């Protein structure tokens, strides 16, 4: 019940709200040509089909105002033709006939014959489509003399060359068509065949041969016209292109293209799969490289400053800027030269270089950057630049002269710098570092931080860092090996079981299971042995300050050997190598345990 | 489109042809083996469509000829039907070919005498030249005196035949300008392409024509007789061995009355009796049977759509033949009232277009058993092998299907499957108009487009040029 009805019942005056209109009573417009009665029969809803009338399209209103212009069948000639063929087409009648006649006596005469006038104008006015009659620009033809002097060829007779040139011109350099229509029957010329009277066999020319001949001729014609030194740039380019055309290469390219086209569906599918695989491998490689990079970035932590108080003055800020710039620069330099890190120890230089070269190897065949010798040369050069009076190295040492790329402003204590080195990124890492140092009996705080000691300390810290990371990797690999071992065990066990199932010898089964027991034992022992060896390695660095370098090298070899080839495969090889060594261990220990049992 | 604006450089080429028209009221004539199509350039279907067959009979020892659709109508005594074109698609009987073609345009397009309004201008032109005037008089007697003529030909038309064609057009019909175009090229134009691989499945032939930049590549042109007539012969062979009973096609003219029968039941029909001296020739009956067969092709015959051949097993391990059997059949009623549902057989009759081993063998057939090299996929393969390798991928991406027999149900799907199987790596794209008329008249429509192009008018061989150079000009100009 609507509000209005209620109001009505209650005799209330209809208030300002008028009864809402039945909205959207869309009155479909009755199409013309349908009577009202017929249209009413359609009911309220228009049928879903469109009612269209079958009659000619009317003129738009505005057109009725336009004066009708008559069209006329007019003859015309086409200037692209040479024979003055007269064809006729409908044309709008020229307005000039009806408009003001030109005040020319002769024209007035013509006015009497409008037909002729039309013909005239049509002919005067160039045929609209004639301008599309364009042909490829052909080089000048050679003269007899030019041909004899420059263009002779053992493979092409003059007749055939002429034929080729004609054909090229005829088909506007469409080589596909030229090669298709090429049919040259060489006429046996009396002068050449002479007494032999051999009719030369009909030669089959490939498109490449034709192209080669044509380009050779055009290039030499071009060169005859202007020597290469006087050619314009485009001409020269054209000339170069034509001279460099290599039919043999074209031929092999086409062969390859044909092969590519004639692949079977299986091959295509396989290619798709391989491409997919490649994509995956590349993606894996990327992540691997990224991981590795991160690892090494950690091994060469740039000198970071934990304390911010010193940057609160403007001086401190400029200092920060400089350090950052320096870090930036040294980074760039490192990537360029491979070596020469400002604070990098020789031990850590090698891995950087290796890694860089490894990365480059795996990415592309770009040659590795300048060798260290050139690098040292460079530094030498810069040295001479900086000091006016070159000092000999001995003198430098004596006077304590040092060269810095850029000196940070302000005063710095060496001790502070050394201190910063002992702070690693993470707390755990710092603790580990401290532990290692404690083990080496090197105090965290240097007692006598001279220049040399600081350098050595730096080296040491780097080595320790490196070593820690190497150990981490080793542990990871170790655990992988263990998993794989277990998997292999499992597999072997299954195999053996199946073999036994065939022989159905219960006693054997027992024996075997015992054996396995032993084997498993042996393996665990083997592992113990290995881990011992590892701990030996860990102990090693404690012996002397130089030792870590060796240990590092060891660890690196393991890790880095994998960068040389595709990392995935290398990794596999790496793990299998470990597996092998592990199994060797286990076999040995197997024997030893057996012996023990006996 | 405003003709005063010059077209941009991209308008012609690049796969699409943008039409800039300038009508010169040219006539386009596309003579095929089964039908001859003629019409005015610029229109979208040929106005005149007549059978290429002509009828021949003699009345009081005088030979008479019948052209056009009239040949189907009256079974006169000893009335025989002939085709001036050989099975190869090349004209055999020039005298009759000329008459048939002439009939195709005089009957509906030009009338027997040329129209007069167009001549006005010409007459005025010639007024001051008495020598030309004579020509003008001569022109009036010839059927094509004021219409340029564009004719089509098959890709393998020999030089002799081409020269004969221009001779007829110029001398018998008096056309002021003439051009002879390959029907493959025209079909490509009709599809809006300047480069394409045209597969034309006509009546007498299947042809594959590589077209590059509006020119055929002769070494790639392939053709084989596995066209509509071959399919008809396959259907006949099927009817002979049909179960539950062999089928004979009885044309309507032989039937006096018939009663409806159930599917598969023998027809109840009374035949018209023709006394031996009144019977038409056997060729007449064959022609009428052919009409029924065409109907049968339209309604029943189906191409196995693939993948794989009908005789092979499909991707899910079920034999394709089993699949075909399980699909519902299609009924067909013959003129004598016999009717039947056709099952897997409707696939068999056309399978040999793709897999010639599947051909139904019939010793009485005029067609020898086909070899695999004649199958359509093989034709396409050898056509591609005949052209430069660089354009093959482009051709494969522009396969144009034309000809009335390509209207067979499922033809395009199968062709696509076969091409994908044979050429898995480049993209294969078939373009076939869905419109029946466009498919049947593909080459005519292309001619209609070409002859109304403004830029084409420089290509015509004019009467003057013909008189100067003789018939050999056709080889030079119509490349
Ligand atoms: N809808 C259809 N489905 C299948 N086949 C058909 C259909 N319509 C006509 N045909 C067949 O197509 C053939 C005629 O094709 P078309 O008109 O293209 O040949 P044509 O151009 O005259 O001959 P050709 O190209 O060999 O010179 C006839 O054999 C006819 O039976
Ligand atoms: Mg045809």
TrEMBL record, chain A:
Locate the compositionally biased regions of type Basic and acidic residues: 1-18, 488-498, 505-524
What segments bear the compositional bias annotation Low complexity? 371-381
Task: Tell me the InterPro entries matching this sequence.
Answer: DAMP1_SANT-like, Homeodomain-like_sf, SANT/Myb, Swc4/Dmap1
Compositional bias (Acidic residues): 533-557
Ranges for region Disordered: 1-26, 331-392, 488-598
Identify the GO cellular component terms for this protein.
NuA4 histone acetyltransferase complex; Swr1 complex
Subunit structure as annotated in this protein's UniProt entry: Component of the SWR1 chromatin-remodeling complex and of the NuA4 histone acetyltransferase complex.
Task: Give me the stretches of Polar residues compositional bias.
Answer: 345-356
Q: What is the scientific name of the source organism?
A: Elaphomyces granulatus
- UniProt entry keywords in alphabetical sequence: Activator, Chromatin regulator, DNA damage, DNA repair, Nucleus, Transcription, Transcription regulation
**Quick one: where is this thing mainly located?**
nucleus
Name the chain's protein: SWR1-complex protein 4
A Pfam family assignment? SANT_DAMP1_like
Task: Identify its protein family.
Answer: Belongs to the SWC4 family.
Q: Does the keyword Transcription apply?
A: yes
GO molecular-function terms, A-Z: transcription corepressor activity
Cite the Myb-like domain residue spans from the record: 148-218
**What GO biological process terms are annotated to this protein in UniProt?**
chromatin remodeling; DNA repair; negative regulation of transcription by RNA polymerase II
The protein's role, per its UniProt record: Component of the SWR1 complex which mediates the ATP-dependent exchange of histone H2A for the H2A variant HZT1 leading to transcriptional regulation of selected genes by chromatin remodeling. Component of the NuA4 histone acetyltransferase complex which is involved in transcriptional activation of selected genes principally by acetylation of nucleosomal histone H4 and H2A. The NuA4 complex is also involved in DNA repair.
Q: Where in the cell is it found?
A: Nucleus
UniProtKB/TrEMBL annotation, chain B:
Q: Which domain of life is it from?
A: Eukaryota
Keywords per UniProt: Activator, Chromatin regulator, DNA damage, DNA repair, Nucleus, Transcription, Transcription regulation
Keyword Transcription on this protein?
yes
Q: Where in the cell is it found?
A: Nucleus
Quote the Pfam families the UniProt record gives: Actin (PF00022)
Can you cite a GO biological process for this protein? chromatin organization
Q: Does the keyword DNA repair apply?
A: yes
What GO cellular component entries does it have? nucleus
Principal location class: nucleus
Q: What family is this?
A: Belongs to the actin family. ARP4 subfamily.
Function in brief: Chromatin interaction component of the NuA4 histone acetyltransferase complex which is involved in transcriptional activation of selected genes principally by acetylation of nucleosomal histone H4 and H2A. The NuA4 complex is also involved in DNA repair. Is required for NuA4 complex integrity. Component of the SWR1 complex which mediates the ATP-dependent exchange of histone H2A for the H2A variant HZT1 leading to transcriptional regulation of selected genes by chromatin remodeling. Component of the INO80 complex which remodels chromatin by shifting nucleosomes and is involved in DNA repair.
Q: Tell me the subunit arrangement.
A: Component of the NuA4 histone acetyltransferase complex, of the INO80 chromatin remodeling complex, and of the SWR1 chromatin remodeling complex.
Spell out the protein name for this chain. Answer: Actin-related protein 4
Q: Which organism is it from?
A: Elaphomyces granulatus
């Amino acid at each position: 019940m609507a509000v209005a009805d209620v109001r009505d019942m209650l005799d209330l005056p209809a208030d300002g709200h008028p009864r809402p209109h039945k909205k959207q009573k869309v009155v479909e417009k009755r199409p013309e040509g349908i009577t009202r009665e017929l249209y009413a029969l359609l009911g309220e809803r228009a049928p879903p089909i469109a009612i269209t009338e079958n009659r000619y399209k009317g003129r738009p209103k505005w057109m009725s105002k336009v004066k009708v212009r008559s069209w006329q069948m007019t003859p015309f000639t086409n200037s692209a033709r040479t024979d003055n063929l007269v064809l006729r087409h409908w044309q709008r009648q020229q307005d000039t006939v009806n408009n003001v006649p030109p005040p020319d006596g002769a024209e007035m005469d013509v006015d009497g014959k409008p037909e002729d006038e039309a013909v005239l104008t049509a002919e005067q006015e160039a045929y609209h489509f004639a301008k599309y009659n364009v042909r490829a620009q052909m080089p000048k033809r050679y003269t007899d003399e030019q041909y004899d002097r420059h263009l002779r060829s053992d493979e092409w007779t003059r007749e055939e060359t002429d034929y080729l040139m004609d054909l090229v011109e005829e088909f506007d350099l469409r080589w596909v068509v030229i090669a298709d229509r090429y049919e040259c029957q060489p006429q046996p010329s009396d002068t050449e065949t002479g007494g032999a009277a051999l009719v030369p066999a009909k030669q089959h020319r490939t498109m490449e041969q034709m192209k080669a001949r044509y380009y050779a001729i055009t290039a030499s014609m071009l060169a005859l016209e202007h020597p290469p030194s006087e050619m314009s740039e485009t001409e020269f380019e054209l000339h170069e292109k034509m001279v460099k055309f290599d039919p043999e290469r074209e031929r092999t390219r086409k062969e390859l293209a044909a092969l590519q086209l004639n692949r079977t569906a299986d091959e295509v599918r396989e290619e798709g799969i391989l491409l997919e695989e490649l994509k995956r491998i590349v993606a894996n490689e990327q992540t691997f490289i990224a991981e590795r990079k991160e690892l090494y970035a950690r091994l060469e932590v740039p000198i970071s400053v934990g304390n911010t108080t010193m940057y609160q003055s403007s001086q401190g800020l400029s200092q920060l800027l400089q350090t950052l710039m320096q870090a930036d620069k040294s980074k760039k330099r490192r990537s360029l030269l491979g070596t020469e890190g400002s604070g990098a120890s020789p031990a850590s230089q090698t891995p950087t270089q290796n890694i860089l070269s490894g990365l480059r190897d795996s990415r592309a065949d770009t040659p590795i950057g300048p060798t260290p010798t050139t690098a040292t040369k460079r530094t030498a050069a810069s040295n001479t630049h900086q000091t006016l009076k070159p000092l000999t190295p001995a003198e430098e040492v004596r006077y304590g002269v040092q060269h810095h790329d850029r000196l940070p402003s302000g005063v710095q204590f060496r001790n502070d710098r050394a201190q910063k080195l002992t702070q690693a990124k993470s707390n755990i890492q710092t603790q580990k570092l401290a532990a290692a140092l404690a083990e080496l009996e090197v105090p965290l705080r240097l007692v006598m931080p001279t220049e040399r000691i600081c350098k050595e300390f730096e080296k040491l810290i780097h080595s320790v860092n490196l070593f820690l990371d190497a150990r981490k990797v080793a542990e990871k690999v170790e655990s992988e090996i263990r998993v794989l071992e277990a998997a292999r065990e499992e597999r072997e066990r299954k195999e053996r079981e199946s073999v036994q199932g065939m022989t159905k010898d219960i006693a054997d089964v027992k024996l075997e299971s015992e054996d396995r027991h032993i084997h498993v034992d042996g393996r665990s022992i083997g592992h113990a042995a290995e881990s011992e060896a590892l701990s030996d390695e860990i102990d090693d660095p404690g012996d002397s300050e130089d030792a870590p370098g060796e240990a590092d090298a060891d660890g690196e070899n393991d890790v880095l050997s994998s960068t040389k080839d595709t990392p995935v495969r290398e990794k596999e090889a790496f793990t299998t190598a470990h597996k092998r060594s592990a199994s060797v261990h286990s076999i040995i220990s197997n024997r030893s345990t057996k012996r023990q049992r006996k | 489109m405003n003709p005063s604006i010059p077209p941009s450089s991209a308008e012609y080429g690049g796969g699409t042809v943008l039409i800039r028209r300038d009508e010169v009221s040219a006539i386009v004539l596309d003579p095929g083996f089964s039908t001859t199509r003629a019409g005015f350039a610029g229109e979208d279907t040929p106005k005149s469509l007549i059978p290429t067959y002509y009828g021949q009979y003699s009345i009081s020892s005088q030979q008479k000829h019948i052209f056009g659709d009239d040949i189907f109508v009256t079974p006169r005594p000893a009335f025989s039907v002939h085709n001036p074109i050989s099975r190869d698609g090349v004209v055999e009987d020039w005298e009759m070919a000329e008459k048939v073609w002439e009939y195709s345009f005089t009957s509906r397009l030009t009338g027997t005498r040329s129209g007069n309004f167009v001549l006005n201008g010409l007459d005025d032109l010639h007024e001051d030249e008495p020598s030309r005037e004579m020509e003008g008089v001569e022109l009036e007697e010839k059927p094509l005196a004021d219409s340029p003529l564009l004719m089509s030909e098959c890709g393998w038309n020999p030089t002799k035949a081409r020269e004969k064609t221009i001779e007829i057009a110029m001398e018998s019909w008096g056309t002021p300008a003439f051009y002879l175009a390959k029907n493959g090229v025209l079909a490509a134009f009709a599809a809006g392409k300047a480069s394409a691989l045209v597969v034309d499945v006509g009546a007498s032939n299947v042809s594959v024509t590589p077209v590059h930049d509006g020119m055929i590549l002769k070494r790639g042109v392939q053709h084989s007789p596995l066209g509509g007539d071959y399919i008809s012969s396959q259907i006949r062979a099927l009817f002979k061995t049909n179960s539950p009973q062999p089928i004979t096609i009885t044309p309507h003219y032989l039937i006096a009355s018939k009663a409806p029968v159930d599917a598969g039941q023998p027809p109840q029909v009374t035949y018209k009796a023709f006394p031996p001296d009144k019977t038409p020739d056997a060729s007449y009956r064959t022609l009428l049977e052919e009409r029924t067969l065409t109907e049968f092709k339209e309604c029943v015959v189906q191409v196995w759509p693939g993948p794989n051949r009908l005789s092979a097993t499909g991707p899910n391990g079920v034999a394709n033949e089993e699949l075909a059997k399980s699909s519902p059949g299609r009924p067909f009623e013959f003129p004598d009232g016999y009717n039947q549902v056709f099952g897997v057989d409707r696939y068999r009759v056309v399978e040999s277009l793709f897999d010639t081993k599947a051909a139904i063998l019939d010793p009485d057939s005029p067609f020898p058993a086909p070899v695999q090299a004649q199958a359509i996929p093989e034709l396409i393969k050898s056509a591609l092998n005949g052209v430069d390798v660089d354009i093959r991928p482009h051709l494969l991406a522009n396969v144009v299907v034309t000809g009335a027999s390509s209207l067979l149900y499922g033809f395009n799907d199968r062709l696509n499957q076969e091409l994908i199987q044979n050429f898995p790596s480049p993209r294969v794209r078939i373009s076939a108009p869905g419109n029946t008329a466009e498919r049947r008249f593909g080459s005519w429509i292309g001619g209609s487009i070409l002859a109304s192009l403004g830029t084409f008018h420089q290509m015509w061989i004019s009467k003057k040029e013909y008189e100067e150079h003789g018939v050999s000009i056709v080889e030079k100009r119509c490349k």
